[in-house]
Amino acid sequence: MKSRWAAWAVVMTCAAAAGQSPIAYTVTTKKPMVSPGTVTITYRLGKKVLVDESTSPQEVSGSHIIRSKTFFDLDKKESIMWDPANPAAPCVVGSFSKDWGDPFGGAASLTGPKATQIGSAIVNGFTTSVLDAPNQGGSTRVWVDAQTGLVVKAERVPLAGDPIQLMEVTAVSLAAPPASVFEVPSRCGEGGAETSVQPAASGTAAAGADAIAALTGENSRDFVSATTGPASPKSCGMVFRIVKAGSLEPVNGAYQVAADLKLETEKNPHYNIGQSADGRATFSGGALQEIAPEGNTGVFRVANLPEQFEIDVEFGDAGSAATKIYRQCFAPQTVLLFVARDPTNLSAGGGWMWAKSGRLATIPR
User: Fold this and answer.
1) Contact by Cβ (8 Å): 319, 325
2) Highest mean pLDDT range out of 103-107, 157-161, 300-304?
3) CB neighbours (10 Å) of residue 50?
4) Which of 216, 240, 247 is nearest to 327 (CA)?
5) Full domain range(s) for residue 166
6) What's the whole-model pTM score?
7) DSSP 2
8) Residue 218 shares a structural domain with residue 349
């Protein structure tokens, strides 16, 4: 195994010298941050990308999706996701700006601008630079191939306890994937797809109508994606709440929320999440500012939402969650939810969604 990986790294030297991701490859990655048995295979051929993610059946329950495929058109900046095992499930049509999850460009999205190199190590035959980015709950550590920029491994290092593995690349091929890999089902063709909740940029959001039902325990038609554009042309305010998957009970605790409401006028903003002497998170960079909660209700309000904004939630030792949100307006004050699988460990994932109707669309008093 080591000789194959080492030979691949040598072949990649030319691509690295050009400072570009290779345009033809297949990368297989374990993603225990989603679940212990989750595996993602990323295929790329030129401007076409197909991400095939699967989870072991014994690790899911109810109607949760155990496999999904997402096609990315890098020219059009469009994506289409579907459940290959369920032809009746709606397709998910979305858009993206820059970050679509390239294995050769993910270090920045995992560590942010605070990362520093703390050493080097051989991982699966690659000579990697070890980057560490401190955060309120400890740090995020990433092993990046020095020649290619491939993120070979990543883990979360808490302040106490053992490291938690987030991902690890297990196989790589530079052979061009067959064209058939990138075929999209006819039911997902232009104009025939039903929009639902799609994965967020962190890769941990709910995916598809079945996954929404499993995550919320409610009718999936009561929710729409918060991370999928285009934004609503209407203007409205936001009521933000954090709830627990399944029960949808409010999550109470000493968490903090911040938002950047000026994304449209900023160019590649960088955010810094620090820690004050009293242990609270501090927010800086771009126009990121903390939002004060309404008493002890766990409710956060923002008036006059822009079409797009960044939101960051800091849970202390439990981790953090952040993503770009597209405004959707179903009422003058529309409810935005972060549905956390495990509020004590955000690496377990969750979903960002707008409450379109149903009991969660009601603003708490």
Assistant:
1) no
2) 300-304
3) 19
4) 240
5) 2-173
6) 0.52
7) H
8) yes
